[in-house]
Amino acid sequence: MKINDVEKITGLTAKAIRLYESKGLINISREENGYRNYSESDVEALKEIKLFRRIGIAISDIKLYLFGVVSLEELIEKRKAEILKESGKNSEIYGICESISAKSSLEALENNESFTENEKARNGGYGTPCVGIDLGTTTISALVYDIDNKEQIEAYTLPHNSYIQKGVFSEQDVNVIMEKAKKLLYHILSTYDNIVSIGITGQMHGIVYIDENGQAVSNLINWQDKRADQIIRDEKTTCDLIYDITKEHISTGYGIATHYYNMLKGLVPKGACGICTIMDLFAMEICGNKKVITHTSLGGSLGIFDVQNNTFKYDKLSLLGIEKELLPQVSDKSLIIGKCKGIPVAIPIGDNQASFLGSVSKNEDSMLVNIGTGSQLSYATDEYQEVDKELELRPLIEGKYLVCGSALCGGFAYSMIEEFFRSYMVSAGVQEKSQYSIINQIAKEAYENGEEGLLVDAFFCGKRIDPNLRGSIKNIDRHSFTPQALVLGVLKGMCNELYELYEKVPCKKSHIVASGGAIKRTEILKDILAKRFGATVSANRVDEESSTGAALFSALAVGKIKYNNGFSEYVGG
Length: 573
Description:
With 573 residues, the protein is of the alpha+beta class. It folds into 4 domains: 1-54, Multidrug-efflux Transporter Regulator, Chain: A, Domain 2; 63-109; 162-347, ATPase, nucleotide binding domain (Nucleotidyltransferase, domain 5); 360-541, ATPase, nucleotide binding domain (Nucleotidyltransferase, domain 5, 2-Layer Sandwich). Helices cover 36% and strands 20% of the residues. The chain contains 19 helices and 28 strands. A hairpin with a 3-residue loop joins β3 and β4 (139-146). α14 (411-427) runs antiparallel to α16.
């Protein structure tokens, strides 16, 4: 059938239909004369797309559903989570999503939807694409980057819902993460032609045990795991024992500390011959490799690592009874470690490094401040240098290093305040609704009125050097104890914690590139950072900076681009 017939049946405009075709949601056959010929299945797909767009589902997410990467249930649950964060359960759209979930059918929607064309179809084709994929703590993100046109083509985010247990023992299902990540990657590879490289990044510090064939024999024990901070003997934790034996500081959640605890407790899985990160495991799987080659950024994230010489401190590890053979081979090069469906795959790198590469265009005068669930400041240096015990010197790429300071709480502190006010509203008999827009507004008003806010130490999750440290709220009097002062105080406390780390760095920077969910959601946070640090602040202008950095690193590995003290041509920050 012709496009005017499809317009009548679906209620979509020709412009919208062509938009969806250009985005790859439908693939229309053509007659000999070149005219499009729409089938019944095309019409049904367009009806689904229209319904999904009515409830605000992103085109990239719809594509994942249509191509079988996610189920209808997963698609709707993701949108419900987004709405709950934005508007709460009393949103009309949330109710529609609930109806779809209950009926497991798109018939739950009405037929007279309105459609807003707020997406612009790309004109023409794309140039040379590379792919970056980020195996995060809660989501898998992927991005297609056009090297020739220096722009992002498409981005995807997919919750993996892989937790098996949380708390002291924090573990995730490796198979769930692997399968969802492969589905997403293979979908992208089947959608785009002439992809030149694949980059991989993800959550650092955690480990998976593998057998002699490179197959997982354990869950992912991730960076949130706190087993190494539990008293194990003589009133000491695993981290304490490691320091007593090796004189090396290590934090809980770091792979070596996790493994040493498992050794002492007899928890090392049967058949385990090695450890690696979740990204290294994914790279092995898609390339068909059996041996791990890990980048120094990931090797260093496991702990007891010689950053200057790019190797584990085997002499110290031997004191713990940890054999060299257990650990992955390390390289500081931008290697190609194999191919996936004929496409070169770069050695995976850490998400801290990838985020920096995807955000900071020039290293000389800028540092990255990321405020997500945790928070972190990072800047690049050309030379090895000793840093304060509250900081880390991490490998970057091309012989460079990152000076890093990490706060465990960060944006989580702000989410705690939002949950506090939301809980109060529910207790007061008001239907559950996100409070972010309200607390953002009252914090802005207090800030613009010159109020100082309460003095909040936002160590609600402790510090890496002192996990038992807890936060506090001070300077309370009968005038200052207000919701506005509390919210503003938490925002300032988040920035103060980072500034305390910044005071310990050996080199000061004049500009901050700010990234992370808290930066995007909270208007005044950039101003608070600028005032506290005495620096200019700009928001990161790319989506999915970790995936972007991984993609650019892979393009570097295959010789398509160069790293001239930053990816200045490709990064907006």
